[in-house]
Amino acid sequence: MDNTHVGLRQLGQNVSRVMERVKRGEILVVTEFGKPIAKISPVREPQTLEEAVEMGQITPASADLAEFLAREPLPSGDGELLSETLERMRRDER
């Protein structure tokens, strides 16, 4: 078994040591009787919006919100409430 795998018994007996490895950035696969059962990985720090844009995870807005709302006004709100719509839809499914 390679260095990225840790047995369940080994994990139980060496939790602090294993967690130190994870804190250093390692991703470890926990095995039981040689079969993978879990993965332990470090928690990623929250990204800034700029980093998310650079990685292509999000796209920056292409227009100003005020300009958009001026072109596409919000609905007046005199229609059915969302909660009422959901209730009706659930009732109709029965």
TrEMBL record:
Coiled coil: none annotated. Residues 73-94 are annotated as: Disordered. SUPFAM superfamilies: YefM-like. Belongs to the phD/YefM antitoxin family. InterPro entries: phD-YefM_TA_antitoxins, YefM-like_sf. Residues 85-94 have a biased composition (Basic and acidic residues). GO terms for molecular function: toxin sequestering activity. This is Phd-like antitoxin.
